[in-house]
Design a protein that fits this description.
Number of strands: 8
Family: Belongs to the TACO1 family.
Mean pLDDT: 86
Order of helices and strands: HHHEEHEHEHEEHEHE
Pfam families: TACO1_YebC_N, Transcrip_reg
Number of domains: 2
Largest sheet: 4 strands, antiparallel
Structural class: alpha+beta
Radius of gyration: 26 Å
Organism: Melipona bicolor
CATH class of the largest domain: Alpha Beta
Strand order of the largest sheet: 3-1-2-8
Domain TACO1/YebC-like N-terminal: 27-98
Protein name: Transcriptional regulatory protein
Amino acid sequence: MNFRNLLFYTKYRNILFQETKHYAGHSKWKNIKATKEANDAARSVLFNSISYRMKAVALETGDPDPYTNIKLANLVEYAKKVNMPASTLKGILEKIQNKTGETHILPMRLLKGPAFVIYFVTDKLTHVKFHIVHISKKFNIKPLESSTFLHMFECASFIIASKDCTLEKAMEDAIKANAEDVEEIEHETGPCFKFKGEFLHPEKITTKLGNLEYTIISADSTCIPNVTTEVTEEELLNINKYKKKITTDIREIVKIEDNIV
């Protein structure tokens, strides 16, 4: 190899090396970016889930103060444990404490797909319903007819309470509290009783149970699916986008339930 060819070879070898190094660095940057985006998405889903649960607990117990609401306090501690930013946590608690109005639900359904039960608190029912329907249409989700909804879900309030008594005594107290049913269950706090009551109005029973010297552990209004629906991975991604969009844009929403398997 003569001197001229050697210079030519050295020049283009260096160019090739630099290009290879550039693309290797670019590939590494893409991998880091993809990993960060995946982690951010996972954190967003987790934080949204915690936010839903906090709103639901405050709504169902009627107590938005974590200093007096043990269940809410536990969720606050969990949020801190998974490194939810303090500003995010503060914003969620402020939203919960500033909510006013009555609790409502709006059943919705994806065309030939799963159904959703959207819980919200407002004193401007028409306005919020319109906003929910408007956003939902963009995701091909429309209001569900009442007859279909009642077929697909069984809705009730469930109150878990403890008292040193027998199931027979709890049944007598259930009648006094106007509960529809009661059963004895094992709870993480120990043996408890699970009372069933009017949907969206657990306070009607919790107040009476409190007067009967029960310790209220939790109160939850929920819709249990009678019919479930399977979805594809792509559909689930779109559903999660829908839930994130609608709960971000409509502050009155406290939780969303569905019948997805």
